[in-house]
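Handout, section B. The chain below has 130 residues.
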Amino acid sequence: MIITENIIKNIDWMQVISVIWTVVLLPVITYIGTQINNYAKAKKTDKYTAILQKNVMNACKDVYETIVKDIKGTELWTKEKQNEVKYIAKQKAIYALSNSVYEYLKASNEDFDEYLDGLIGTALYDLKNT
C-alpha cells in the first residue's frame, strides 16, 4: 500500500494528461472533425448539383419551346443544329448558376463539362419522349 501511494505521488500528472491527449483524444477529435467536414461538403455538393439539374431542365425546356419545336422534323434539323441547341442549353444552364456555385461544381468535378453534356442530353431526351 505504501508502494502504491509512493508511485501515485511520484507520477507527473501533466505528462499523463498530455500523453492521453496526444494518443487518444486528439486523433478522435481530428477524425470526428474530418467526418463532419466531409459530410458538410457532400451536402453542399448535393445542394449545388440539384440546382444545376433544375437549371438544365429549365434551359432545355426553354430551348425546346423556342427553337427545337418549330424545326424538328424539317430539313433544318441537322446534326449541326442539334449541337448548336445543346450548346445553347448548356450556356443557359451555366448562366443561371451563380459564379460561386459554378466554380464550386467545376472544382468538385474534374469532368464537369462532360457531366453537364450528359445532363443536357438526358434532359433533351426526356423532353423529346414526354
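Note. The chain is about 85% helix and 0% strand. Compare this with the example in section A.
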